[in-house]
Amino acid sequence: MILRLAWRNLWRHPRRTLLTILAIGFASAVLVFFKGLQSSSYDTSINASIRLLSGHLQIQMPGYNDNPEIRLSFHPTDDLVQKLRAIPRVVDATARSMGFAILSSESRSYGAQIMGVEPAHEGNLSTVAGVVREGRYLSDDQAHEIVIGRTMAKNLHIAVGDDLTLLGQGRDGSLAATVLPVVGIFETGSMDLDRHLAQMPIGSFDDIFSMNGEIHAIAVALLSRDDIPAVSAAAAPLAPSAATILGWEQLLPGIKESIELDMAGGWLFYISLILIVLCTILNTFLMSILERTKEFAVMLALGSQPRTIIGLILTECTFLTIIGLLLGIIGGSCVILYFGVHGFTVPGSEALAKVWNLPTAVYTKLTLQSITMAPLIILICTLIAVLYPTLRIRKLEPVEGMRG
Amino acid sequence: MQTILLLFQLALRNLRRNRRRTFLTVFAISAGLWSSLGIACIARGLSTQMALNAINNLTGHLQVHAKGYLLDPSVDSSMDAPSDAFIRELTAPSITAWSTRVRVPGVVMSERETKGVSLVGIDPAQEKGLSFIGNAAIEGSQLSGPTDKGIVMGRKLAELLRTGLGKRVVLMSEGRDGKVRDRGFRIIGIFDADLESSERSFVFIGRATAQEMLDLGSQVSEVAVRSNDRFELEEARSILNRVFTQHDVQDWTTLEPLAVAVTKIQNGFLFLWSIIVLIMIAFGLVNTMFMAIFERTREFGLFQALGMKPSSILFQVLFESALLLVVGGLVGNLLSFGTVALFRDGIDLSHFAAGTSQLQVSRIFYPTMLLRDWAVANSVILVISLASAFYPARRASKLEVLEALGR
Q1: Is there a contact between B280 and A276 if contact means CB atoms under 8 Å apart?
Q2: pTM of the predicted protein model
């Protein structure tokens, strides 16, 4: 009965009700879409960064992540990497070594980060192998060759087929020197990698840098970020006891914190919008309560309990708010789905994408959290705010109320 | 005049009659204004800081290079230092500071580590007021002049190299003849910079020392110039074009596209945000005004029966909205100015140090109120409030007298 009364009451003032529903609907659509866009953007950047080079987790010596010294290496037991590949949810695992060297062409010299990789597996860990624009990627573990980034190739004035002299310091302090042919030039789109990274087969790296069979890291790619805890637990007993297992958040603290920074900023928007929409809703509800004092008084005089009236008012408010929120959720979801297909791009963001290693288009995904969080907050705040004037009904004196 | 005063008083009385509703509406308007303006200030603060960081990061307002340096920033693309005749031109009032530098890629080796860096040969006196190194906080001491034999490096780099003040490092770079030159330097100073990337990438030595080490004679890699306004560079640019006819002259917007890109994107976003806030306020205001009119239908009917013109009713309602607007606007503006004043010493983002380093923004920024943003935010609120009040006001003035009295 209360439900029918509440519904009828809402439509006594159609324009007011409609305007309020539209206001709530608009606000929640905006919030739902922004939240969806935000989550999808974060997801996309994290996955893109993981896929670029670091992988989901890595096994390293403690301290190596903060300060990559060539001496902080470890010896992988013979089938460690194979065992890691066998863990469920693992896409691939690969060994890596790293060192700094000066690469010289005929006319130029530049410092570079040299990374020793397993060519057969590296492609599953990082996109570098897949973006070789000229020449080819590395062939096998022992090959005597090198691939470099497009910017570095430009700076060194060399092309595929030319030789580079490598000059660095080995693990034992001895000179690391050799001449390597450039077999491929890659272009990841990341300014940093294209300028500073060079990759060579890990067997040759071991020779040249006197690694003696030791490596610096095992990088592991998983099916999803959610698998990291389970796989870390499974990998822990297999890894050398002194080694430590690092997840993407420790490998890419910059990404993690820049996302946190952005989220903090995002809260400013959400709170402002929620505050403004609350004012609008409250005005409507208050009006509808206060103008019906006489009506409530009559109902009380005829024998209704105060709590029936309170229930009635709260039901009206809930109806109104929920209709508006549902409208907003549907609207926001439609926009999310639209951009899920067409991709959301911010005009002018290409320059940023290059520097921050981000893809330019975000394909927004619908998640339960993004479509329910804001509407839920609005609903709860609304009900709390409406509670005070509603409870005052209990103090209403029927006779006085009817007179007013 | 009498009528207007009367209408004004009526409007005021109406607002006072329904305090709660007045309060809520004023709150909505001021919250809307505060959030538009506040968010704009924060956004501008960030992008301004990015631009300033980019400019201070050795870029300056304008740079001159030999043609080809930008594609190949090495010792081969050096240029002649400006002659005395040119130096006189460079002392024009629109150019507040200028310097010449050697800037080439190099490698620095400590006892433990080796890192690739940008080797910069400077005259520290020229860098004052031009780039960050001229005014940086330096532990130890700054280079004494272009002939100083020491090296000054960033704190982050010193950490990565596991070295410190007073220790020696070896600098290697390619000389004019294509051969790699190396020379030992003692670290005489360690600087802290706003951007971690500055601390990691740059090592500073005396310009003359660099020229000698690399066999450059009197040549340099670049001339950096600072004008008095980073947005008004035409005069400075034309001077430079006249002085350096065979060279590339570029300004910071071309050399550091990131800061510019961020500003552009911000403009778009802030505009979108104002529209959203505007729509929300419009909804609220229209609803409120209709409610206010509805409960006074009888009163309006009475006024009209007693001879008040419909246009007066219209104005009365508009005055009510105007009052709400003025108070809401005032409160909103006060809150905004207050927020900017509160954060006058900057907002510290050190908690997100790795994040700011990733995004290449500095760890501290200052919310900035630009006249343009203030004008836009206030006019948007003004226009939308008056527009939303207009329709209800018109309806009020068109009420049928008898019908209204009957309510």
Answers
A1: yes
A2: 0.81
